[in-house]
Design a protein that fits this description.
about 20% strand; alpha+beta; five-stranded antiparallel beta sheet; coiled coil; 6 helices
Length: about 190
């Protein structure tokens, strides 16, 4: 009789654990979505020297106007250096700026090409969550392999879908290993055969 009660209790607890795992996965997904939405007006600016006042709201607004040749000042709610410790090699930490208007953020991120500020190369990019950044970084090997290939267009779409267009064929991948297998089987094999 005790064995039967123990078995029933184990089955019930297993069911509860399975339900909790499902709920945890749902909450993680919801948390990532909320964090991503919270950061949608944020930009990261890399390459600005770490000098006093260079990450202030006024300085960042002037920097964006000058570097991107904007007609008006960009309204910034707050800005600061990333919270990582200073690097011993002297490489400056990125500036994270929260722009007030989403449309300003889109305009700032639309600018392509090499950007320079006071003779130094800088980069401006979106402030994605850590999970999205990891997912994008997982495709780095595939991107490096495709760089410079003829008839190939590729890109990453939010949150982490890698799209490859080769000649008239277009494929989307969620898994970097499947994307790599496609590149090696279709694109590299065809180039090797030429």
């Amino acid at each position: 009789m005790d064995n039967m009660k123990t078995a029933i209790r184990i089955v019930k607890e297993g069911t509860i654990v399975a339900e909790l795992k499902t709920e945890l996965a749902s909450l993680k997904k919801k948390n990532d979505d909320l964090e991503g939405r919270m950061r949608r007006c944020n930009v990261r600016i890399a390459g600005i020297p770490e000098e006093t006042g260079w990450s202030s709201i006024v300085a960042v607004s002037k920097l964006l106007k000058e570097v991107l040749s904007l007609e008006k000042d960009t309204l910034i709610d707050r800005s600061h250096r990333s919270l990582t410790p200073k690097k011993p090699n002297g490489k400056p930490r990125v500036i994270i700026a929260k722009l007030h208007y989403y449309q300003d953020c889109v305009e700032v991120l639309r600018e392509q090409g090499p950007l320079r500020y006071k003779g130094e190369a800088i980069a401006i990019f979106p402030d994605y969550t850590a999970s999205v950044a990891r997912a994008w970084a997982a495709f780095n090997d595939v991107r490096n392999l495709l760089r410079g290939k003829r008839d190939v267009r590729y890109g990453i779409m939010f949150p982490a879908r890698f799209q490859i267009s080769y000649k008239v064929d277009s494929k989307e991948f969620l898994d970097p290993e499947k994307a790599m297998a496609y590149v090696k089987s279709m694109i590299q094999n065809e180039e090797t055969a030429k």
